[in-house]
Automatic annotation (TrEMBL):
Record-linked PANTHER family: PHOSPHATIDYLSERINE DECARBOXYLASE, PHOSPHATIDYLSERINE DECARBOXYLASE PROENZYME, MITOCHONDRIAL
Keyword Metal-binding: no
Record's cofactor remark: Binds 1 pyruvoyl group covalently per subunit.
Pathway: Phospholipid metabolism; phosphatidylethanolamine biosynthesis; phosphatidylethanolamine from CDP-diacylglycerol: step 2/2; Lipid metabolism
Chain's gene name: psd
GO terms, biological process: phosphatidylethanolamine biosynthetic process
Organism of origin: Exobacillus caeni
Protein name, as recorded: Phosphatidylserine decarboxylase proenzyme
Length: 262
């Protein structure tokens, strides 16, 4: 019953017209009056912002804010895979032999997530990370490792929420929501950065201009809270033993160590 109600609510609120109104409002100066209350309510750290709170002219500017130089420490050790975002570790683990994993009682297919059996096959028995960003988190996305951009593509349309309720009651939101995928290659191994849109707000923008990325380099941003799924090929990394589902994570924190000797 809860699932039926939840999905019906998303259908009603996920109409393109509703989405358009929400996007227009958050980008308009009419939303400026909510900037300070929002920052206070969510305890956003104003000291690390690139510019003072009073200079933000809309909620969109606050959501997509940049940070001061040095606000996030990125290890120079190229053997470390780092978190590409600030957020919370929802889950991580091994991808099954048939390219699937389970979250909140739902089964996810990598083939469905990436839109191709051929693209999914390379991640069989690899590692996945699900990193959730709430509306209060820093929304810019950074490269989890240095490497070459092999491919980038978009999939999906309407978006369910990607918070815990969304993962439990939504219709496989991580593999059916609007998503923008960037695939990197490092030492002949692939890393997929799957950026998943949130309810009503499918705006995911890329900011990179080159075909190669440095570790920690900005690659894009969400215009609202959302989720990043990392997919890593088998025998590529050793997951950091200190990681736990539910823990907070920041850009630059170590997720694992590469097994190669580059």
């Amino acid at each position: 019953m809860i699932k039926i109600f939840f999905r019906s609510f998303v259908e009603l609120t996920g109409h393109p017209f509703s989405s358009m109104l929400l996007k227009k409002y958050t980008k308009s100066r009419w939303s400026k009056g909510l900037v300070k209350p929002f920052a206070r309510a969510y305890n956003i750290n104003e000291q690390e912002m690139e510019k003072p709170l009073q200079e933000f002219l809309s909620l969109h500017e606050l959501f997509t804010r940049k940070l001061k130089e040095g606000a996030r420490l990125v290890s120079q050790d190229e053997q470390e895979l780092i978190s590409p975002v600030d957020g919370k570790i929802e889950l991580f683990g091994e991808i099954t032999n048939d390219c699937r994993f389970h979250v909140k009682g739902q089964e996810y297919s990598i083939e469905e997530m990436l839109g191709s059996k051929e693209k999914a096959k390379k991640y069989e028995r690899g590692v996945f990370f699900i990193l959730y960003l709430s509306p209060s988190h820093y929304h810019r996305i950074h490269s989890p490792a240095g490497g070459m951009i092999k491919n980038s593509w978009k999939l999906g349309g309407k978006s369910f929420p990607v918070n815990r309720l969304g993962l439990k009651y939504g219709e496989r939101p991580l593999s059916t929501n609007f998503r923008l995928i960037t695939e990197l290659e490092r030492s002949s191994k692939s890393i997929a950065v799957v950026k998943v849109g949130a309810l009503n707000v499918n705006s995911i923008c890329t900011t990179y201009t080159e075909t190669s990325l440095k570790k920690g380099e900005e690659i894009g941003y969400f215009s609202f809270g959302s989720t990043v799924v990392l997919l890593i090929e088998k025998d590529t990394i050793q997951v950091n033993n200190g990681l736990q589902p539910g823990q907070d994570i920041r850009v630059g924190n170590c997720l694992g160590t590469f097994l190669d000797e580059d």
